[in-house]
From TrEMBL:
Keyword field: Copper, Membrane, Metal-binding, Transmembrane, Transmembrane helix
Compartmental location: Cell envelope
Protein name, as recorded: Cytochrome C oxidase subunit II
Transmembrane spans: 21-42
GO cellular component, one term: cell envelope
Main location: other
Keyword Transmembrane helix: yes
Organism: Deinococcus arcticus
Cytochrome oxidase subunit II copper A binding domain mapped to chain residues: 91-192
Keyword Transmembrane helix on entry: yes
Length: 192
């Protein structure tokens, strides 16, 4: 009586051929990954903590704040720091200041108006849990932790609308956590 036909046996020459093929696939993938990382570094699309990239310049420093008592800090009034006449205040570093608070699935202010072409130092913190702060299409991308202030100086060279998203899952309302920057062209020089 004959036994049921079995699956064809692979001899070890065939196995070696498959191994060579898979080794080749792995080498090709490694090379593609290396080329991809290298080219993204050269083109500047890879996030960097300093220098220039994505059309904006920035620098990062860090500070602390009591998340339960923001009323005693500049975060009590989120937005661009302006004087009594509504004009942006230039700080000692020669930049403008803007304060942004992330918490309870929102960013405050809901819309931040900024002038194009002027360095703005963004001070961003979280009140409740860890959030993300990413200006889409740029290399501005920081993690926000309650009690910590992320400080970064950004120059928006072009006017227009920029979207800011939370890219770190923070709870049920995470997907609604989005805000806008309205980058406005520099005010025309006053006419005499
Ligand atoms: Cu969030």
């Amino acid at each position: 009586m004959r036994r049921a036909p079995q699956a064809p046996r692979l001899d070890h020459h065939a196995l070696e051929r498959y191994e060579r093929i898979w080794l080749g696939v792995a080498v090709v993938m490694t090379v593609l990954l290396f080329v991809g990382v290298l080219s993204s570094l050269i083109s500047g699309t890879y996030p960097r903590l300093s220098g220039q990239g994505g059309g904006h310049s920035m620098a990062v420093t860090k500070g602390r704040v009591d998340p339960a008592n923001l009323a005693a800090t500049p975060f009590a009034r989120p937005g661009l720091v302006v004087d009594a006449a509504g004009q942006p205040v230039v700080n000692a570093q020669g930049t403008l200041d803007a304060y942004i608070v992330a918490g309870n699935f929102t960013f405050q202010p809901a819309v931040l108006r900024l002038p194009a072409g002027r360095p703005v130092t963004l001070h961003v913190t979280a009140t409740d849990v860890a959030h993300g702060f990413q200006i889409t299409g740029t290399n501005v991308n920081v993690e926000l932790l309650p009690g910590h202030v992320a400080t970064l100086t950004v120059t928006f060279r072009r006017s227009g609308e920029q979207h800011v998203i939370c890219n770190e899952y923070c709870g049920l309302g995470h997907h609604n956590m989005i805000t806008r920057f309205l980058v406005e062209p520099p005010a025309p020089a006053a006419k005499e």
